[in-house]
Design goal:
492 residues; alpha/beta; Rossmann fold; Alpha-Beta Plaits; Arc Repressor Mutant, subunit A; 3 domains; five-stranded parallel beta sheet; 21 helices
Length: 492
């Protein structure tokens, strides 16, 4: 029976974890609880638990500081971190401590139990490692802790010999997948093993690979990329970061290079996801929502674009964006017609020389296109659809059904569904989801409510379902979105 210590300053979290354990979880029992880092240190020395679920953000001594103070005294203890936000700086601090897993709140019962299952397997590996020199204990410790430190020549050679490697050099690679997709590494590694030797572990929810020398890094990177394309289903976010080939004494540099590259690619992916989402939101709202609201979205969008790309590339993207808006307003690019293109945004935008000129041009032109679009949509949208959209905008925060919206629009549900399809190219559910997620984004950026409170505020009674919908729409979890907004990622 393995003992578990729960450390968290939030009473509901302690009660939830404790209830699950006390209800009966095979192989595990609750040893005790703590509500601060200082109390956690005392309880760990007193109880010597097999597993510690440790909150990071606590008043006074935080979770990571507490682990740093007991880590060397209890090397066999499995530490699982939990926090409300995914933060890259915290992950970097946690890596040398050999943290087994990193959970983002709110943690569901399913995730908690799955984590305990993984912990059980890990403990079995570690304990069998005490009597079996061929277990994964050395590999896990090497990848989770040792490789992150600057090593001397003698240490490097000793590690090479203990792991049975031909050389003490090599390179590190990280693979980040969507949460709850760790099972995919089984197939990925089976394919990689056919061609390359490597060491592997799951570290802080990332797949961590060490390819020892002799190795052709270019060939290994290419083969890994092809393998991921074959093994990872479409729609699952997959990001790779690879370090350079280093000698044994400099392997820690390959680690930081790989992690840095993965973070840059993650940031770039986030930018593209947000860019697509903003374009969709603005195009849907043009001419329908209040002009000030849409103009604010537009200003936020172009600010992100100019902050994320070179000036010339940003202008090119905005030229394409304005062409889309013109087409929405006039339909001049949709079919052969006599409708003339009112102006060529590329010709006007590419001649702008600085941000001041861009501001003057863009706001005036945006107002012009908004007026054109409003004239088209209010004149061409059937009255029932206008009524339906207005009803959704004022009622999205509660549970509403298509039938209720149809009643407000004075039409049948079948006819209203057809109006959504014909005029918006969307379904009622998809349109409602977009409205809710858009408002959720705004609430999360304001940083006044928890993710659970945001879910309730935009009409979702199940926060877990809201998180799934948000991830599917935006491309990242609400907690990750909150972390990006809260800590002011400069790539946005």
């Amino acid at each position: 029976m393995y003992t578990v210590l729960i450390v968290d300053d939030e009473e509901p979290v302690i009660e939830s974890y404790s209830f699950i354990l006390e209800s009966g979880v095979e192989n595990f029992r609750l040893a005790g609880t703590a509500r601060s880092g200082s109390e956690a240190i005392a309880r760990i020395h007193e109880l010597k638990p097999d597993v510690v679920f440790m909150d990071i953000n606590m008043p006074g001594l935080d979770g990571l500081e507490a682990i740093e103070r007991v880590h060397d005294y209890f090397p066999g203890t499995v530490f699982v971190l939990s926090t409300a936000y995914e933060r890259f700086d915290l992950a970097c601090r946690a890596i040398p401590l050999g943290i087994f897993k990193y959970l983002v709140k709110p943690v569901t019962r399913k995730t908690f139990l799955e984590t305990l299952d993984a912990v059980r397997v890990e403990i079995c590996k570690r304990r069998s490692g005490r009597v079996s020199p061929d277990s994964g204990l050395r590999t896990n410790k090497f990848l989770s802790e040792t490789i992150w430190k600057e090593l001397g020549p003698e240490q490097s050679i000793a590690i090479r010999e203990s792991l049975g490697l031909e050389s003490d050099g090599g390179f590190v690679c990280f693979v980040g997948l969507d949460s709850e997709q760790e099972n995919l590494f089984v197939g990925i590694n089976a394919a990689l093993e056919l061609k390359f030797r490597f060491l592997f572990t799951i570290h802080l929810n990332l797949g961590m690979y060490f390819f020892p020398c002799p190795v052709d890094k270019e060939a290994a990177d290419a083969f890994l990329e092809r393998t991921l394309k074959d093994c990872v289903p479409a729609g699952v976010l997959c990001i790779v970061g690879s370090g350079s080939v280093r000698s044994g004494t400099e392997l820690h540099l390959s680690c930081t290079e790989a992690l840095s590259e993965l973070q840059k690619r993650r940031d770039s992916t986030d930018v593209r996801i947000r860019e697509r989402l903003r374009v969709i939101q603005i195009r849907r709202k043009m001419g329908l929502s209040d002009c000030e609201e849409v103009r604010a979205l537009f200003s936020e969008y172009w600010s992100e674009i100019f902050a994320s790309y070179s000036f010339e590339m940003a202008k090119a993207k905005m030229a394409a964006f304005f062409s889309l808006l013109i087409d929405d307003a006039t339909g001049c690019y949709q079919s052969h017609s006599d409708t003339a293109v009112p102006f060529d945004p590329a010709e006007e935008i590419m001649g702008l020389e600085d941000l001041a000129a861009w501001k003057d041009w863009s706001l005036a032109t945006f107002n012009r296109i908004y007026t054109m679009t409003r004239g088209k949509r209010t004149g061409q949208f059937p009255v029932p659809l206008v009524r339906a959209l207005a009803f959704i905008e004022t009622s999205f925060e509660r549970q509403i059904q298509l039938s209720e919206v149809a009643d407000a629009a004075h039409v049948s549900t079948a006819y209203l569904s057809k109006l959504f399809s014909d005029h918006l190219g969307s379904t009622f559910v998809d349109y409602l989801t977009e409205i809710r997620v858009g408002h959720a984004e705004q609430l999360i950026r304001e940083n006044r409510l928890t993710v659970k409170e945001v879910a309730y505020a935009v009409g979702y009674q199940d926060p877990n379902y809201f998180s799934k919908i948000f991830r599917k729409t935006v491309g990242m979890s609400p907690s990750m979105y909150a972390e990006r907004s809260r800590y002011g990622n400069q790539n946005y």
